[in-house]
Amino acid sequence: MLIGNGSPLLSAFSLITLLEFFCLLLVDFCINNLAAIRKLESSARGRTHFVESCGLPISTYFSALKLLWLLDNVEGLNEAAKKGDAVFGTIDTWLIWNLTGGAEKGLHVTDISNASRTMLMNLKTLDWDKSTLDTLGIPAKILPKSISNSEIIGNIAKGWPITGIPISGCLGDQHAAMVGQSCQKGEAKSTYGTGAFILLNTGEEVIKSNHGLLSTVAYKLR
Ligand SMILES: *[C@@H]1O[C@H](CO)[C@@H](O)[C@H](O)[C@H]1NC(C)=O
Ligand SMILES: *[C@@H]1O[C@H](CO)[C@@H](O)[C@H](O)[C@H]1NC(C)=O
After folding, report:
1. Mutation test of ligand 2: which of 173, 175, 197, 214 has the most ligand atoms closer than 8 Å to its C-beta?
2. CA 115 to CA 109: how far, in whole Å?
3. Is the pLDDT of residue 168 over 60?
4. What residue intervals traverse the membrane (predicted)?
């Protein structure tokens, strides 16, 4: 989350990171107490309320609930977001924004695979899902523009030893490993990191799991 004068809400970031690693239960407790989420969970589709649009169950693992918590709990943030003085992004958003000039002229983007893990992106349109945003009360204008994993995004701003170099790709974590290991349609790979994950490349088709597996964008190369 970036805020008006260009400084990130660092306390919010580190709070979330720490809680995520050490007190997941506490985060769950706080977030599950968000009125919006309680209402959705008791609705007909329960935790799978958004599965049809984003492929993910309602979970504290994804950005949307953390964003809701921030909007609810950080003083002044909700108003700032509504006025367009605060914007949201994933870690790649922050890095690109910072590298391309920050508050002055930084680009506000996120790579599509990261966007698909926010719970806010529609897997079919590959765009932010309006009905999800309306349901959760998240203003569309605070969200970054989605970009593919391989395109010229912008140039490194002045102040860096590599000023002027184009940033021409952005992909993180399991998704990047999937591309790096050339995991093709029909193939699966396993990543060991903070957890162990198995990813199966289903090609261009979204295949709905009946066993609780997640659907997500692996990568988009142009
Ligand atoms: C990028 O981030 C660093 C570290 O927070 C900060 O010192 C610097 O001012 C930022 N650059 C821009 C252009 O925002
Ligand atoms: C985006 O990618 C980064 C780097 O791989 C990862 O740490 C982060 O969890 C991802 N964000 C989302 C919302 O998946």
Report:
1. 173
2. 10
3. yes
4. 12-37
How many angstroms is it from 95 CA to the middle of ligand 2? 12
Q: Of all atoms in ligand 1, which is nearest to the CA of residue 157?
A: 13
The Cβ-side half-sphere exposure at 74, using a 13 Å CA radius, reads 23
b/e burial code for range 104-126 (CB count within 10 A of at least 16 → b): eebbbbbbbbbbbbbbbbbbeee
Q: In angstroms, how far apart are the furthest CA atoms of the chain?
A: 55
Identify which of 56, 111, 117, 219 to mutate to test ligand 2's pocket (most ligand atoms within 8 A of the CB). 117
The pTM for the full model equals 0.84
